[in-house]
Amino acid sequence: MFMRKSKMSLIFQAAIDVFSEKGFDKATMDDIAARANVAKGTIYYHFKSKEELFLFLVEEGVEVLRDGVESKLMPELSPTEKLELIVREQINFFGQYRDFCVILLRETWGGEERQLEFRKMIRSYMYLIEQVIQQGIEAGEFHPVNAENAGSGIFGMIAISALHILLGQNAYDEEALFQDMKRMVFSGVVK
Fold it and tell me: What CATH number does the domain located at 52-189 have?
């Protein structure tokens, strides 16, 4: 999938598969080890617990999302073009990494500790959106809104819409979802 350390890529992919299929609570380290075709001790060598493995998986995924979007946000783009790019890239990411999207959005609202960790991880990505919103406000392209609220709202709107499609019976049509999200984001943000 999107592992940076190839040594653990089997464990990482197995964890994504198992968490996606069974959910965090029903998944076991035995399930993940069997899916990865490694000894359970190999997993425990890298991760102290299922929770630690789960949080690592989420952190890696969010980092890939953020890095992918950030690498395309060229300074010469207008704030409106940057925001459009963010909307498209997030939709494409969720389409490309469907199982990760399901895990991220379905499972991260578990215990209080997990919620706090998740918010820290996703904050770096939402900060990118906030910066673009702030640039748009300063350039006079966007209405004056609270950039933090707008950033989390845009992320959430896209994420929940993607999850709804991924968990439903409809095909994940990235272009149709992009057009709908773009229309909603720009009708409320762009002058």
Answer: 1.10.357.10
Full 3-state SS string of 66-112: HHHHHCCCCCCCCHHHHHHHHHHHHHHHHHHCHHHHHHHHHHCCCCH
Residue type, 5: K
Taking the C-alpha atoms of residue 157 and residue 145, their distance in angstroms, rounded to an integer, is 17
Using alpha carbons only, give the angle 126, 14, 40 rounded to the nearest 5 degrees. Answer: 120
User: What does the pLDDT look like over 11-46, one tens digit per residue?
Assistant: 888 999 999 888 888 999 999 999 988 889 889 988
- Specify which residues 190 forms β-bridges with: 142
Domain ranges (residues) in the chain: 52-189
